Amino acid sequence: MSADDSDSATFQDQPITQLLVKVATRCNIDCSYCYWFRDAAVYNKPKLMSADVLHQLLQRVEQHAAKYALVDFPIILHGGEPLLWGVENFHRFAEACEKISSRTGCEIPIAVTTNGVLIDDEWLDCFETRNISVAISLDGPSHIHDIHRRTFQGTGTHAAVERAARMLVSRDIGVSALAVCQPTYPPEHYVEFFRSMRNFQLRHHDPRCDGG
């Protein structure tokens, strides 16, 4: 057996320790820097995860957790915009994960990455009841955020996202911010904005630089 074969066999024997699941391949806003929609093949994929695929996914998660006696197995729901999958599917998914946890002893923390535009009281109830943490995409102050994160009609989304952030932190929900930082703007623009966001009690922000 070659060294490459040995490394491959070793890798295959290692458990997956967390999972990112794309539950939606479409989005409700039109971000100019989004990599996902640069590939036209995306539009040939199902728009939303089906009930059959969900069932198969949950089976595999339980099998994996049991096989490796995992203590925890974090799952992040992603997209596109994952909230397009619908609040009932989030409830269904979280309830199924709770049952898997009770059968296997493996905790399954659930998180979602969202643009925040669709968040309303029904979503807040879901996140809080199901203990789903939320990472909300927020590219700093409005004059930066709205350059790239716009609706299909060309309007900015910052006001809606800020409103969603305020709603999230008004409840018992873990919230973080995910930012794409533009190097054309001084770091102080971001520092001051996210410093002010402490009033929202956001737990942390994750600055990522976009060189484009």
Structural overview:
By secondary structure, this protein is an alpha/beta fold. The chain has one domain: TIM Barrel, CATH 3.20.20. Helices cover 40% and strands 15% of the residues. It contains 7 helices and 6 strands; from the N terminus they run αβαβαβαβααβαβ. It has helices at 3-12, 51-67, 87-104, 121-130, 142-148, 158-169, 187-196; strands at residues 19-22, 75-78, 110-114, 132-137, 175-181, 205-209. A 6-stranded parallel beta sheet has the order 1-2-3-4-5-6, with helices on one face. Strand 3 (110-114), helix 4 (121-130) and strand 4 (132-137) form a beta-alpha-beta unit. Helix 2 runs parallel beside helix 3. The longest helix has 18 residues, at 87-104. The mean pLDDT is 90.
Radius of gyration: 19 Å
The CATH superfamily label reads: Aldolase class I
Q: What is the helical fraction, as a range of percent?
A: 25-40%
The stretches of 5 or more residues where confidence is low (pLDDT under 50) are none
Helices and strands, in order, run as: HEHEHEHEHHEHE
Q: What count of structural domains?
A: 1
- Give a quick account of the main beta sheet: strands, pairing sense, barrel closure: 6 strands, parallel
- Which architecture would the CATH scheme give at its second level? Alpha-Beta Barrel
What overall form do the CA principal axes indicate? globular
Ends: how far apart?
44 Å
Output the structural class: alpha/beta
Strand content: 5-15%
On the 0 to 100 scale, the average pLDDT is 90
CATH top level label = Alpha Beta
CATH fold title: TIM Barrel
Strand tally, please? 6
The number of distinct helices, counting runs of at least 4 residues, comes to 7
As laid out across the biggest beta sheet, the strand order is: 1-2-3-4-5-6
